[in-house]
Amino acid sequence: MAAWGAGASPAEAAAEVTRPSSRLGNTLLSDHPPLWYPPNVDLLLHPPDEARPHRRNRRGKLSTVGHAAAFRAFARAANRVGVRFMVVGGTFRDVAVRASSTRDIDIVLVDRKELPEDAMHAAGFERIPASPHAWRFTRRGTEVELQVAALASSRSLAGPFSIAFKEAVPRKIEGCEVPTPRIEDFVILKLVAAHCDMLRRNRDLADIQSTLFAYPELSASTLSIPSLRARLRDLYGIKDTALRRLTALLRQVPRP
Fold first, then answer.
1. 226-245 residue pLDDT tens
2. Within this chain, do residues 72 and 170 fall inside the same structural domain, yes or no?
3. Which value, to the nearest 10 degrees, does the dihedral of the CA atoms of residues 54, 56, 57, 62 take?
């Protein structure tokens, strides 16, 4: 295949790329700067998204295979022995933001450093070697990991997870009513994580973007930049340089 098409100069080819295509519709690169290659050569053409893709399940059903049984087993065991926890991470995103699979079940453990081993074994979980805060649940050949993502306190507001837990709201997940962060606190926890971990930053900012698009009705109120900035300052106690950096990072996230 010729590099520029049949006798086309680089300038002509670039102009052709930005021209609407009757076969592919009027969206083909028409809003992008001219490119050096001709149309229809090595182009990845994504199909248009649905108006509301990956809509969350309002009944709290988990998307990942095996997670439903593992979550129910853990939540019931925790309730029996009085273990306090909060659902976070991809598990919360799945039921509250957008339906999507996630690698493991993420929880914040409250007022204790470890899950009780006897109760976890009775519920069908086994501790994962070399991972003190990870447990494996196996059912019908499917393995699911439960991760203690963070520790928090109900008595002290010394950290962001403790603050989010104090503000937590109940949500039904797989038939079990469990504490979950407010949607604005989920955004804040993701923002703090993005600021602290460069390797995970893009994923955390993508979760923030998904949240903003899932709740457009809150974009001018609870999830607005001024509102989130005020919550960071007044509730989470983040001020001065740290507050400016987090606000700048939040401004990078596209909004609906």
1. 999 999 999 999 999 999 99
2. yes
3. 80
